[in-house]
């Protein structure tokens, strides 16, 4: 159990990250018929004469649970736009009705992320002409970090997976922030109340569905990948990211792992935190 000081620091970090008012997008487009099948677009805060900006695709966290939607990460999306990026903030179907604690909807959550990324090039051309989709970086926080890693690995899914693609996505890379990147380790540590097990349908589905959803089993991807992780993270502990990096190395792929001292779970997406500047720099290194 965390000591009182660590728990207090984590609570203060969470309060800071959620203290920023939501930022409305410049445009919103649907990629399906469900109300959650939408993408918000943020134009880069640059001059009209600026060249097209790299596109950052953001996948929010919240343990794939309904009560956490994309609004909580809009200050981070706005921060990236102010740093000169074009931003696409993806919503997707999550678990249960608002107010319930069920994590994820199988297969709807993965259906939506797959469909959103497939529709993104056409939607970007219409809604965000300032973007250069040839320089696309995927990022996501916590459960959204899982989704970013998973989306970049669709070409190595099992052959019978409905989301499998014939080749790797056209990405500059992935920056996964405190991701739920290894389901076996996450379950041993009871991450987010065994959210990964819930996402896969509980005990009955966990073993059978892991090969279709667990990033640690979908390696190597051949896509540049960096994980950013706070050493003081009490929500998704450092061991989860380290296990994914180890699995990548065993598969012959080097994955970057940036560990931040005295940083917990939420500063990575908090525009007021120094850790958010580190995240922005990691994205820039891949995108520019």
Order of helices and strands: HEEEHEHEHEHHHEHEH
Which bin fits the share of residues in helices?
25-40%
- Silhouette: globular
| Number of DSSP helical runs | 9
Strand content: 15-25%
| Biggest sheet character | 8 strands, mixed
Distance between the termini: 42 Å
Q: Structural class of the helix and strand makeup? A: alpha/beta
Average per-residue pLDDT, rounded, comes to 96
- The unreliable regions are none
Q: Taking strands numbered 1, 2, ... along the chain, how are they ordered across the largest sheet? A: 1-2-4-3-5-6-7-8
Task: Calculate Rg over CA atoms.
Answer: 17 Å
Could you tell me the number of beta strands?
8
What does this structure look like?
The model has no long low-confidence stretch (mean pLDDT 96). This protein has an 8-stranded mixed beta sheet, with helices on both faces. It has helices spanning 4-17, 74-82, 108-127, 143-151, 183-188, 195-199, 203-213, 238-250, 274-287, and strands spanning 27-30, 38-42, 53-59, 86-90, 131-141, 173-177, 225-230, 256-260. It has 288 residues and is α/β, with parallel strands linked by helices. Helix content is 35%, strand content 17%. It contains 9 helices and 8 strands.
